[in-house]
Amino acid sequence: MSEQVRSAEQSEKPVKPFLYVVVCAAGVASGVSKLITAAQERDWEVGVFATPVAMDGFFDTAAVEAQTGRPIRSAWRRPGDPRPFPAPDAVVVAPATFNTVNKWAAGLADTLAVATLCEACGLDVPVAVLPCVADALASHPAYRESLTRLRGMGVRFGDPYAGAAGEDGGRPEFAWERALDLLEQR
């Protein structure tokens, strides 16, 4: 291999490990910059995927693109378009919704975000998930079966977050950094 080819290949690889963050349409998605900051502080490069609905006002897309220095991926690229992200070293899904978890477990890759999750499991990439699902939906048999299936595939789950107001009327904080902690458990 020539020095020019070797040098070009090395320049394409990120120096830091690359983390895919998949954002779903839940109210807490507005805080995804906290996860990105925490990941960057732990020496990750970050690229964000979002479900199409999440792109519609659930978080500040311009701020996230500025923070990561990369475009948010929500649609498939066309044949011949370059890959905007390198292959992932790990994936975090936060917040993970009822819809996304069930589609992913069933292999229904109808969005780029879910297709990316299906592919990550096929590539044996570590995946951590912070669910954000209402209690009524979390009790649905399909959801419970989806969690069992995904856990059987090696996916790591944080505690569910329903976002219900406590007795004092305040909502608990979404534990963004917990996803990174899950990735570090080997």
UniProtKB/TrEMBL annotation:
Cite the Pfam families for this sequence. Answer: Flavoprotein
InterPro entries xrefs: Flavin_trans-like, Flavoprotein
Residue ranges annotated for the Flavoprotein domain, each copy included: 21-150
* PANTHER family named among the record's database cross-references: HOMO-OLIGOMERIC FLAVIN CONTAINING CYS DECARBOXYLASE FAMILY, PHOSPHOPANTOTHENOYLCYSTEINE DECARBOXYLASE
This one is known as: Flavoprotein
User: Can you name the source organism?
Assistant: Streptomyces thinghirensis
